[in-house]
From TrEMBL:
Pfam families: UDPGT (PF00201). It comes from Asparagus officinalis. This is Uncharacterized protein. InterPro entries: UDP_glucos_trans (IPR002213), UDP_glycos_trans_CS (IPR035595). Gene3D superfamilies: Glycogen Phosphorylase B. SUPFAM superfamilies: UDP-Glycosyltransferase/glycogen phosphorylase. The keyword Glycosyltransferase applies. The keyword Transferase applies.
């Protein structure tokens, strides 16, 4: 533990998997590195996703360890429905209701003798800093995208927004991924959410070498010795996990920071390749098969990619180990707050 005072962090996160997972990792690291106490808070929708067997939607989770989970009201108990809900109204309501709820959480914790020393929030929830300020509590933004994205956002807000684009997974792309995986003639596990399973697309597994599921523990899969390649959309969590576990990648980026992450993976780190797309932005099945053959084959290119993946695994293990760069940065962060 850092010093004699057990620091208490309140971590507030947007209720999406890409926010919740890194926030949980940060909570674990703070406990391991500094002996801190953590209160973890996300919306009712996110809270239920984390703990599906709760008897009540407003039930706190305290398993007797250093991390307690408490829900944050946001006015959307069933989450955001993109086919029904208005995005602007959703974020406006989230700010209004969420600010009140966060303030109430702070007061409740204080009344229990568990005053909050610092509030950490993921981006999108910038209003959490205002709530922290009103309560006289230091706050910090937890950035969950690569630092390179800062430069892109800077240009977007300074007259270059026409050069920043985003896209979403298309029905045709799902079809081509299915074709490419089958054409590779390699065993595969495909994680495809229910809302991406378009009508008319044949994706169900039909043999012992094919498995299609709606969810899996990605880290457990990536640590399995049989995994030879990770076909990924290149979200920042997936990108980091592929580096940490030394798994070569084929990048199929779709939107937001994913294109930048794929570029870093291919050009800067060398631990994977980015699939080429056609004029409609679709990676066809034959291109996916080619990428898989390259990464997993015995050619010089594949061997070099696998070598780089293993090298980054070793470097990151050193970084998060005691005295490593990541370990030092986290300790420095805690010292600067206190």
């Amino acid at each position: 533990m850092e010093g004699t005072h057990q620091h208490h962090f309140l971590i507030v996160t947007y209720p999406a998997q890409g926010h919740i997972n890194p926030a949980i990792h940060l909570a674990d690291r703070l406990v391991q590195t500094t002996g801190a106490r953590i209160t973890f808070s996300t919306s009712i929708f996110g809270h239920r996703k984390m703990f599906p067997n709760l008897t009540s939607i407003d039930q706190e989770v305290d398993e007797g360890g250093p991390i307690t989970y408490i829900l944050l009201a946001n006015g959307y108990d069933e989450g955001f429905n993109p086919g029904v809900d208005d995005a602007n109204q959703f974020f406006s309501q989230f700010k209004t209701v969420g600010s009140q709820s966060l303030s109430s959480i702070i007061n409740t914790l204080d009344s229990r003798g568990r005053g909050v020393d610092c509030i950490i929030y993921t981006f999108v929830l910038s209003w959490a800093a205002d709530v922290a300020h009103k309560h006289g509590i230091p706050s910090a933004l937890y950035w969950i995208q690569p630092a390179t994205i800062f430069a892109i956002y800077y240009h977007s807000f300074h007259g270059h927004e026409d050069h920043v684009a985003a896209d979403f997974l298309k029905k045709q792309q799902i079809e081509e991924l299915s074709k490419g995986l089958k054409a590779s003639r390699r065993p595969y596990l495909w994680v495809l959410r229910a809302d991406c399973r378009y009508e008319g697309i044949e994706i169900e597994d039909k043999g012992e070498n094919e498995m299609v599921v709606e969810w899996c523990s990605q880290m457990r899969v990536l640590t399995h010795p049989s995994i030879g390649c990770f076909v990924t959309h290149c979200g920042w969590n997936s990108t980091l996990e592929s580096l940490v576990f030394g798994v070569p990648t084929v990048g199929v980026p779709q939107w937001t920071d994913q294109g930048t992450n794929a570029m870093l993976m291919e050009r800067e780190w060398g631990n994977g390749v980015r699939g080429g797309v056609n004029e409609d932005g679709i990676l066809n099945g034959e291109e996916l098969r080619r990428c898989l053959d390259l990464v997993m084959g015995e050619g010089e290119g594949g061997m070099e990619i696998r070598k780089k993946a293993e090298l980054w695994k070793e470097r990151l293990a050193e970084a998060v180990g005691e005295g490593g760069s990541s370990d030092r940065s986290l300790r420095k962060f805690v010292h600067e707050i206190y």
